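Issue 218. Parser rejects a valid record. Input:
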Amino acid sequence: MERNRLLTLLVLLVTAVMGAWAQEPATTYTVNLNDGTKNPTTWTGKAGDATQFSALPLEGVTEGQTVTLKYSGTREVKSIKATSDAAAAEPAAFINGKFSVSDTKQVYFSKGNLRYVSGAWSFFDNQYDYYATYSADAWDKFGWSNSTNNYGMSTSTNNNDYKYDLVDWGTVPGIGSGWRILTLAEWQYLFSTRSASTVNSVANARYTKGKVNNVYGIILFPDTYTHPDGVTNPVGINVTGNTGWNGNNYNATDWGKMEAAGCVFLPAAGYRDGTTVSSLGSSCSYRSSTRNSPSMVQYIYFESSLLNLETHNVGYYGQCVRLVREVTE
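Output the parser choked on:
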């Protein structure tokens, strides 16, 4: 009975591993046991319709194949490991914290604000990074994006140049698929409605204002969050009014621990009007995908003394873009 149970578990585990990796760019896999490899000949089986094998590791398994192993010894199965011969994956482009933006939808945030520099799109290396000046070669504050103005990279202050339907920044080349910006309703749900963890005795801790690596901004706590040991507890949680920015002050080391626990940071990167960048370090506005008229667009706005989750202005103002991708597993 125990042997049959282990065999069933083994087949299911290998099938799950192979299926989960089938969408990666790998061509073949090697299957082994994390525990039990000291006596690999206790296992026999086959991969797909392939010829029977009599020892592990099993090499050259193609994507999507089901591996069937038969137990012929006494060693207990701990787990199964499959490795790919493909090149190592690029570092994750998103923060590993899940954030609810509706009753049924969660998202990951990109690892930094969107930028266009030297002819290519990418995310900033750090969440607190932004450009302090305007440059024709380096953009991170975009007007309303449509099919005629190259994702809002225009210094025009004529709002007629921004009146058309949104072309989402999530479709820019070079950053991968699946990205988009939030709707205004999703931003509002994120800040005001979602259920979240208790942090420093505050239930449903969603956000706080603070300073990260000497940059002012807003810290977002993921739905499930445990504050790292040894890092000062945040204060002013879920407070829309003036928290003095410095109520929370985290150096790069402590922020690295919070980021690893899933926190997102929205820097107060100011805004752009034509070629003039203003309000650096004191306020910021972030794009939504929502319009409220042909000439006015919705966004969120914050500074040390307030948080406005429903404001609108002309489309030509250059504002920050933070992309998300939906949690699908």
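Fixed in the parser; the record now loads. The radius of gyration is 25 Å.
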